[in-house]
Automatic annotation (TrEMBL):
It comes from the Bacteria. The keyword Transport applies. CDD domains: ABC_NrtD_SsuB_transporters. The keyword ATP-binding applies. Transmembrane segments: none annotated. InterPro entries: AAA+_ATPase, ABC_transporter-like_ATP-bd, ABC_transporter-like_CS, ABC_transporter_ATP-bind, P-loop_NTPase. Pfam families: ABC_tran (PF00005). Residues 4-231 form the ABC transporter domain. GO terms for molecular function: ATP binding; ATP hydrolysis activity. Signal peptide: none annotated. Keywords: ATP-binding, Nucleotide-binding, Transport. This is Spermidine/putrescine ABC transporter ATP-binding protein. The lineage of its organism: Bacteria, Bacillati, Bacillota, Bacilli, Bacillales.
Amino acid sequence: MSIVKINNVDKTFFTKKAATTALKDISLSIEDGEFVSLIGPSGCGKTTLLSLIAGLFQPTNGEINIEGQQILRPSPKTGYMLQQDYLFPWLTIEQNITLGLKTMKKLNETTRENALSLLDKMGLLDKRRDYPSQLSGGMRQRVALVRMLATEPSLLLLDEPFSALDYQTKLKLEDLVSLTLKEQKKTAILVTHDIGEAIAMSDRIILLSARPGTIHQVFDVPEVLRQLAPFKARNHSEYNKLFQHIWKELESLEEENI
Protein backbone atom coordinates (compact mmCIF):
# COMPACT_ATOMS: atom_id res chain seq x y z
CA MET A 1 0.00 0.00 0.00
CA SER A 2 1.28 3.47 -0.88
CA ILE A 3 1.70 5.72 2.16
CA VAL A 4 2.83 8.73 0.11
CA LYS A 5 1.50 9.73 -3.31
CA ILE A 6 2.98 12.76 -5.05
CA ASN A 7 1.05 13.72 -8.16
CA ASN A 8 2.47 16.12 -10.80
CA VAL A 9 3.93 18.50 -8.22
CA ASP A 10 5.56 21.79 -9.21
CA LYS A 11 6.93 24.38 -6.81
CA THR A 12 7.74 27.95 -7.84
CA PHE A 13 8.91 30.63 -5.43
CA PHE A 14 7.85 34.18 -6.25
CA THR A 15 9.44 37.47 -5.29
CA LYS A 16 8.62 40.99 -6.47
CA LYS A 17 11.28 40.72 -9.17
CA ALA A 18 11.47 37.05 -10.16
CA ALA A 19 9.95 33.60 -10.15
CA THR A 20 12.17 30.59 -9.43
CA THR A 21 10.93 27.09 -10.18
CA ALA A 22 12.50 24.67 -7.70
CA LEU A 23 10.61 21.50 -8.68
CA LYS A 24 8.76 20.48 -11.83
CA ASP A 25 6.37 17.61 -12.55
CA ILE A 26 7.29 15.36 -9.61
CA SER A 27 5.25 12.16 -9.40
CA LEU A 28 6.22 9.48 -6.92
CA SER A 29 4.66 6.78 -4.73
CA ILE A 30 6.28 5.45 -1.57
CA GLU A 31 5.13 2.16 -0.13
CA ASP A 32 4.39 1.27 3.49
CA GLY A 33 7.64 0.38 5.26
CA GLU A 34 9.85 1.59 2.41
CA PHE A 35 13.02 3.65 2.92
CA VAL A 36 13.63 6.10 0.05
CA SER A 37 16.53 8.51 -0.37
CA LEU A 38 16.53 11.74 -2.39
CA ILE A 39 19.86 12.75 -3.92
CA GLY A 40 20.92 15.19 -6.62
CA PRO A 41 23.05 18.24 -7.40
CA SER A 42 23.11 21.09 -4.88
CA GLY A 43 20.04 23.28 -5.24
CA CYS A 44 17.97 20.65 -7.04
CA GLY A 45 15.06 20.92 -4.59
CA LYS A 46 15.56 17.89 -2.31
CA THR A 47 14.78 19.75 0.91
CA THR A 48 12.01 21.69 -0.84
CA LEU A 49 10.33 18.39 -1.72
CA LEU A 50 10.70 17.17 1.86
CA SER A 51 9.15 20.41 3.14
CA LEU A 52 6.21 20.01 0.75
CA ILE A 53 5.63 16.46 2.01
CA ALA A 54 5.76 17.79 5.57
CA GLY A 55 3.08 20.37 4.71
CA LEU A 56 5.32 23.31 5.61
CA PHE A 57 4.19 24.96 2.38
CA GLN A 58 2.02 24.06 -0.57
CA PRO A 59 2.84 23.00 -4.16
CA THR A 60 2.26 25.55 -6.91
CA ASN A 61 0.63 22.74 -8.90
CA GLY A 62 -0.25 19.13 -8.12
CA GLU A 63 -0.97 17.52 -4.76
CA ILE A 64 0.59 15.33 -2.10
CA ASN A 65 -1.34 12.68 -0.18
CA ILE A 66 -0.31 10.74 2.93
CA GLU A 67 -2.43 7.70 3.73
CA GLY A 68 -5.03 8.98 1.28
CA GLN A 69 -5.33 12.44 2.84
CA GLN A 70 -4.19 15.54 0.96
CA ILE A 71 -1.51 17.42 2.89
CA LEU A 72 -2.47 21.09 3.26
CA ARG A 73 -0.61 21.82 6.52
CA PRO A 74 1.81 20.06 8.91
CA SER A 75 0.34 16.78 10.09
CA PRO A 76 0.93 14.46 13.07
CA LYS A 77 1.24 11.73 10.44
CA THR A 78 4.80 12.93 9.77
CA GLY A 79 7.89 13.24 11.94
CA TYR A 80 10.79 15.49 10.92
CA MET A 81 14.47 15.03 11.85
CA LEU A 82 16.96 17.70 10.80
CA GLN A 83 20.72 18.25 10.68
CA GLN A 84 20.54 19.94 14.07
CA ASP A 85 18.80 18.24 16.97
CA TYR A 86 16.90 21.37 18.14
CA LEU A 87 16.62 20.06 21.69
CA PHE A 88 15.52 22.65 24.22
CA PRO A 89 18.55 23.32 26.46
CA TRP A 90 16.45 24.18 29.53
CA LEU A 91 14.55 20.88 29.43
CA THR A 92 15.84 17.51 30.61
CA ILE A 93 16.20 14.68 28.10
CA GLU A 94 12.98 13.10 29.37
CA GLN A 95 11.15 16.42 29.00
CA ASN A 96 12.53 16.84 25.48
CA ILE A 97 11.45 13.40 24.26
CA THR A 98 7.93 13.83 25.64
CA LEU A 99 7.47 17.40 24.43
CA GLY A 100 5.78 16.36 21.17
CA LEU A 101 3.37 14.14 23.08
CA LYS A 102 2.62 16.98 25.49
CA THR A 103 2.01 19.42 22.62
CA MET A 104 -0.33 16.93 20.94
CA LYS A 105 -2.09 16.31 24.29
CA LYS A 106 -1.16 12.63 24.13
CA LEU A 107 1.14 12.55 27.13
CA ASN A 108 0.04 9.97 29.71
CA GLU A 109 1.75 7.24 31.68
CA THR A 110 1.57 4.76 28.78
CA THR A 111 3.03 7.12 26.16
CA ARG A 112 5.68 8.33 28.62
CA GLU A 113 6.77 4.76 29.31
CA ASN A 114 6.89 4.08 25.56
CA ALA A 115 9.15 7.12 25.04
CA LEU A 116 11.43 6.00 27.86
CA SER A 117 11.52 2.49 26.39
CA LEU A 118 12.73 3.99 23.09
CA LEU A 119 15.34 5.99 24.98
CA ASP A 120 16.47 2.75 26.63
CA LYS A 121 16.83 1.08 23.22
CA MET A 122 19.09 3.97 22.20
CA GLY A 123 21.25 3.25 25.25
CA LEU A 124 20.41 6.58 26.87
CA LEU A 125 17.94 5.79 29.65
CA ASP A 126 20.54 6.74 32.25
CA LYS A 127 20.65 10.22 30.68
CA ARG A 128 16.92 10.93 31.16
CA ARG A 129 17.52 13.56 33.85
CA ASP A 130 20.51 15.15 32.10
CA TYR A 131 20.35 18.27 29.94
CA PRO A 132 21.30 18.44 26.25
CA SER A 133 24.56 20.30 27.01
CA GLN A 134 25.75 17.23 28.91
CA LEU A 135 25.45 14.95 25.85
CA SER A 136 27.66 14.45 22.79
CA GLY A 137 26.41 15.29 19.30
CA GLY A 138 25.66 11.65 18.50
CA MET A 139 23.73 11.22 21.74
CA ARG A 140 21.71 14.35 21.03
CA GLN A 141 20.75 13.03 17.59
CA ARG A 142 19.60 9.77 19.20
CA VAL A 143 17.44 11.81 21.56
CA ALA A 144 16.01 13.71 18.57
CA LEU A 145 15.16 10.36 16.95
CA VAL A 146 13.37 9.19 20.11
CA ARG A 147 11.42 12.48 20.29
CA MET A 148 10.26 11.92 16.71
CA LEU A 149 9.38 8.24 17.15
CA ALA A 150 7.56 8.83 20.46
CA THR A 151 4.61 10.48 18.68
CA GLU A 152 4.27 7.38 16.43
CA PRO A 153 4.19 9.12 13.04
CA SER A 154 3.34 7.12 9.92
CA LEU A 155 6.11 8.78 7.90
CA LEU A 156 9.61 9.90 8.94
CA LEU A 157 11.30 12.75 7.06
CA LEU A 158 15.08 12.85 7.54
CA ASP A 159 16.93 15.93 6.26
CA GLU A 160 20.65 15.07 6.38
CA PRO A 161 20.41 14.08 10.06
CA PHE A 162 23.97 12.70 10.23
CA SER A 163 25.84 15.34 8.21
CA ALA A 164 27.10 17.34 11.21
CA LEU A 165 28.58 14.27 12.97
CA ASP A 166 32.08 12.85 12.78
CA TYR A 167 32.42 9.91 10.39
CA GLN A 168 32.63 7.15 13.00
CA THR A 169 29.57 8.43 14.88
CA LYS A 170 27.72 8.84 11.58
CA LEU A 171 28.32 5.20 10.62
CA LYS A 172 27.18 3.96 14.04
CA LEU A 173 24.02 6.07 13.90
CA GLU A 174 23.21 4.86 10.38
CA ASP A 175 23.17 1.29 11.72
CA LEU A 176 21.13 2.23 14.78
CA VAL A 177 18.54 4.26 12.86
CA SER A 178 18.22 1.62 10.13
CA LEU A 179 17.68 -1.18 12.67
CA THR A 180 15.18 0.89 14.67
CA LEU A 181 13.11 1.83 11.63
CA LYS A 182 13.04 -1.75 10.36
CA GLU A 183 11.98 -3.06 13.78
CA GLN A 184 9.17 -0.51 13.93
CA LYS A 185 8.27 -1.01 10.23
CA LYS A 186 8.44 2.73 9.58
CA THR A 187 8.30 4.48 6.21
CA ALA A 188 11.09 7.01 5.74
CA ILE A 189 12.39 9.57 3.24
CA LEU A 190 16.01 10.66 3.58
CA VAL A 191 17.58 13.73 1.96
CA THR A 192 21.34 13.30 1.63
CA HIS A 193 24.36 14.41 -0.39
CA ASP A 194 26.12 11.16 0.50
CA ILE A 195 25.65 8.52 -2.21
CA GLY A 196 27.11 5.84 0.07
CA GLU A 197 24.66 6.65 2.84
CA ALA A 198 21.76 6.49 0.40
CA ILE A 199 22.81 3.07 -0.89
CA ALA A 200 23.53 1.63 2.56
CA MET A 201 20.20 2.69 4.08
CA SER A 202 17.64 2.66 1.27
CA ASP A 203 15.30 0.42 -0.67
CA ARG A 204 15.14 2.95 -3.51
CA ILE A 205 17.13 6.05 -4.46
CA ILE A 206 15.56 8.96 -6.36
CA LEU A 207 18.05 11.05 -8.33
CA LEU A 208 16.77 14.56 -9.04
CA SER A 209 18.05 16.68 -11.91
CA ALA A 210 19.51 20.16 -11.47
CA ARG A 211 17.01 22.99 -10.92
CA PRO A 212 14.23 22.83 -11.66
CA GLY A 213 14.34 19.44 -9.99
CA THR A 214 12.70 16.60 -11.88
CA ILE A 215 13.00 12.86 -11.32
CA HIS A 216 16.00 11.99 -13.50
CA GLN A 217 16.36 8.34 -12.52
CA VAL A 218 15.22 5.82 -9.90
CA PHE A 219 17.64 3.17 -8.59
CA ASP A 220 16.45 0.01 -6.87
CA VAL A 221 18.93 -1.09 -4.21
CA PRO A 222 19.73 -4.83 -4.60
CA GLU A 223 17.96 -7.10 -2.14
CA VAL A 224 21.27 -8.45 -0.83
CA LEU A 225 22.23 -4.94 0.36
CA ARG A 226 18.80 -4.21 1.84
CA GLN A 227 19.16 -7.26 4.10
CA LEU A 228 22.43 -5.96 5.58
CA ALA A 229 23.13 -3.32 8.21
CA PRO A 230 24.45 -0.14 6.53
CA PHE A 231 28.04 -0.65 7.73
CA LYS A 232 28.16 -4.18 6.32
CA ALA A 233 26.41 -3.11 3.11
CA ARG A 234 29.25 -0.66 2.43
CA ASN A 235 31.70 -3.59 2.21
CA HIS A 236 29.68 -5.62 -0.32
CA SER A 237 30.66 -5.80 -4.01
CA GLU A 238 27.12 -4.83 -5.10
CA TYR A 239 27.50 -1.60 -3.13
CA ASN A 240 30.52 -0.56 -5.20
CA LYS A 241 28.76 -1.35 -8.49
CA LEU A 242 25.74 0.77 -7.61
CA PHE A 243 27.92 3.56 -6.20
CA GLN A 244 29.82 3.86 -9.49
CA HIS A 245 26.60 3.84 -11.51
CA ILE A 246 24.98 6.60 -9.45
CA TRP A 247 28.23 8.61 -9.31
CA LYS A 248 28.43 8.69 -13.13
CA GLU A 249 24.80 9.78 -13.46
CA LEU A 250 25.24 12.51 -10.84
CA GLU A 251 28.45 13.74 -12.48
CA SER A 252 26.72 13.98 -15.86
CA LEU A 253 23.95 16.09 -14.29
CA GLU A 254 26.47 18.41 -12.65
CA GLU A 255 28.41 18.79 -15.90
CA GLU A 256 25.20 19.74 -17.71
CA ASN A 257 24.62 22.41 -15.07
CA ILE A 258 28.03 24.08 -15.49
